[in-house]
Fold this protein.
Amino acid sequence: MEASVDRRKQPRAPTAGNGNANGVASAAAEEEEGELEEEEEEKLRLRLRANENHKPESYEDLQMQLEFSPLLFSSLEQYLPFNMLHVSRELKLQYMRQILLRYSPEGERARVKRHKEYRQKIILNYQPLHRELYTMHEANFFVPSFLKAIAENTEESFRSIMAEPSPGIYTFEMLQPRFCELLLSEVENFERWVHEKKLRIMRPNTMNRYGAVLDDFGFETMLEKLMEGFICPISRVFFPEVGGSTLDSHHGFVVEYGVNRDVELGFHVDDSEVTLNVCLGKQFSGGTLFFRGVRCDEHVHSESQPEEIIDYSHVPGHAVLHRGRHRHGARATTSGQRVNLLLWCRRYLFLCVYSLKNLQDA
Ligand SMILES: O=C(O)CCC(=O)C(=O)O
Ligand SMILES: [Fe+2]
């Protein structure tokens, strides 16, 4: 098994979106007034260090016209040269956009554009069944023990609700049964709608034939809050080596296993820094999650040590939190139906800015 480990990828453009696929191509921006002279374009540079005192602009209102995430522009702004910090927002935008365009492959931008249009079509037409799920209501979503631990926000309080069956794998009770039930019925409602409309649904990633991307049908803001308010505090304590407290984007989806669904999931690593995996139900047997230790890219296929081999049986409402690079897979769900909520948490904006600066310095 150790011979082959897939990198489980979301079918998306890593450099053009922010993991939330909120960028769309617009040729119009090129003809905007105040365009930079060609000569100046040659000098487009980012500073080595962020200017922490600079408060970046918001570009959210331009979301529909921009081919990159508004958040990416805000992150990048802190790295602008001093003389660019106080020019107009339009000029800053143009400066940053030209840098981004230089390093972002066109094919990926086109893919992000298509994804954005797909999402827009859904958001405009899909009628949610349980609207109360789309905004964060923590008292309705989470069990009290989880809320208490988060409110206390200490390593001790987190450990008091968690088991750590193997180093770096944390399990705990998290979601209320009622929330799981409603979310399952919302997902079913969405899938019914997709089927009725004869839409081609985009699956969560390259290894699933079933399941749905929650961010695509309205859950983006709620899941953002879940990551920021609940997963970042825990990751800050347990996953500092992957920037646990600075996770800045996510990919949220459900996977579905059972008869007429996916059966199992091969050995893989996730396209995330930190992964939250919560079982929503329903009733099932099998579906055990197996882990085989954390590896870097170069050693992802190496043998595992006996102490790294661990199995975990999903329990509805209970979460598993692990590093994306903690190699794992799921055994066959042999009867019933198993649905899990996955939140791949990333440091996408940070890594984007970092790789841009590296490319510039190369
Ligand atoms: O089925 C599971 O619980 C594992 C899912 C998983 O690893 C993933 O979606 O990346
Ligand atoms: Fe995974």
Remarks:
- The radius of gyration is 21 Å.
- The chain has a mean pLDDT of 87.
